[in-house]
Give the backbone structure.
Amino acid sequence: MGNASLAVVITQPRGPLAPGDQVQLTDPKGRRHRLVLEAGRSFHTHRGSLAHDDLIGKPEGSVIVSSGGTAYVALRPLLADYTLSMARGAAVIYPKDAGQILAMADIFAGARVVEAGAGSGALSCWLLRAVGETGLLVSYERRADFAEIARANVERYFGGPHPSWRLVTGEFPAEGAAGTLGPGEAFDRVVLDMLAPWEYAHAASASLREGGLVCCYVATTTQLSRTVEALRGYGSFDEPTAWESLLRGWHVDGLAVRPEHRMVGHTGFLVTARRLADGVTPPPRRRRPAKAARPEAAEPGTEPCDQR
Ligand SMILES: C[S@@+](CC[C@H](N)C(=O)[O-])C[C@H]1O[C@@H](n2cnc3c(N)ncnc32)[C@H](O)[C@@H]1O
């Protein structure tokens, strides 16, 4: 079930800068400002003002000089820039994790995806761009104030309502979200970025088609452990995969080529698991878990020294 029949076409703006475009201005120190172009308006910084009219009609990538003499590079923001600078209710998924989710949860054009919670709508933007106009994204957000922030952020990014998006203010249904689709239909992907995804193993399984995939983003090791154990214990997923990604920028200047001194050391962990066919249980794991991993299974008198 796609949305190809809807008339709205979502395109990324190209060509000369035009009224209504979002523009990111970057000064020589790398500081960024974002504005929406409007004929007749001015943008003020502590380094002087810029007339929007001086940008309108210029090619993207132009340099504009403020009345105070500072040069700014003018570009339309990338989605990574946009999600990091947009208004926030809840904490957003960082671009490095959004990229991992798109790749490792295999979000494809035309996919039917359900996510919870929508939070500030950052991941919703990435997912909508990936599923496109032939796909479907249903986003649940239990907080009405966050849902409104998510809606505003997504609509600002796409320049209006996205034809593939349904935002639902409310809890991710405990019985799963497949009921929001036609009879006998199910989602290809479930993406959970919420406090307690381990409570939703059944809901994820019931939302997914056979062969579908659940992807959970969690911030702490305790959440990671509970999520993996819940998916493993539920009985309708194959063995979960868990990982984190670290992104370290590099300073490259002449002979001074080295990692940046500062990095974001932690964002979150990702877990994915595939939904097995109806009535199938996962085959026994080939590698038996270490006894010490499950103290309740350890022989009396043994020390849980090997936690791996
Ligand atoms: C960290 S935020 C999500 C951020 C979002 N992925 C983004 O990139 O902007 C987590 C959100 O999940 C929502 N939430 C938690 N449990 C939920 C549930 N059971 N159903 C729906 N939303 C839920 C919270 O209200 C919160 O807004």
In short: Helices lie at 79-85, 95-104, 122-131, 144-158, 201-207, 221-234.
